[in-house]
Amino acid sequence: MPLVTISASYGAGGSQIGPQLARRLGVPFLDRAIPVAVAERLAVPLSEAIAHDEAGRSAFERLLERFAPAAQAFSASTPPPELLDERSYLTVTEEVIREHAARGDAVVLGRAAAVVLRDVPNALHVRLDGPRDRRLEHAMRLEGIDRETAERHARETDRAREAYVRQFYDVDARDLSLYHLVLDSTALALETCVDLIAVAAAAHAERTS
Predict the structure, then answer these.
(1) CA 113 to CA 106: how far, in whole Å?
(2) CB 107 within 8 A of CB 20
C-alpha cells in the first residue's frame, strides 16, 4: 500500500490535498490523529499535546525564540530543560509515524515525516510549494481571510515549521533533495495535485515492493 509524506509551505494546500489523497489511496491520514495519540501515550490533556505539536506553531515559535540563544550556549548533550520536554513529545510523535509506516500505508502531513522516514524505501516524499503571492491568495480563498491576516499566518507558520525541522533534525525543510516529488500547488488545481501524487505513490510502491 502507498506510504506518502507531505511537506507544505503555508497556502500550498497541504491540509486539503492530504486528506483527499488519503481517501483516494484508501489509507489513514495522519494529521490531527497524531497529537491525539501523543496525548494518550503521555497521559496528558489533548490541549497540551496540541500545544507541543508542530501544528501548534505559535507556542513552538515562542519557545524557540525564548530558548534558542540558551540552546546555543549548551553542548548537544545538555540542551535546556524546556527543549528536553519538547523532545519527549517529539519522540512519541516519531513513534506514531513509524508505527504507521511499518504497516506500510498512510499519508502523513508535516512533522518532518520526510526526515523521520527517509530510510523507509517505500515512502514517497512530496513537497508542496509555490510563489509567496500565489500562496497568500490561495490561503485567502481557502480560509476566508484578508491579506493582512494571510501574511501574518504565512510568517508565523513557515517560520515555525522550518524552525521545527532545523532545531530537531538539523536540516532545511526547503531542501528539495529530501523529496521525490515537488509540486507548485498554486499553479495546479488541488484535484490535479491529488491525481499526480496518487499516480506517483502507486508507481513508487510498485517499484519498491
Answers:
(1) 11
(2) no
- 105-117 pLDDT, tens digit per residue, is 899 998 899 999 9
3-state secondary structure of 18: helix
At 120-165, the pLDDT tens digits run: 999 999 999 999 999 999 999 988 999 999 999 898 888 888 888 8
Q: What is the sign, positive or negative, of the torsion defined by CA atoms of 194, 196, 200, 202?
A: positive
CA angle 40, 46, 52 (to 5 degrees): 100
Q: Which three cell numbers stand for residue 104?
A: 506500510
| Number of residues that this document lists for the chain | 209
- As given in the structure block, the three cell numbers for residue 144 are 476566508
The Cα 29–Cα 15 span in angstroms is 10
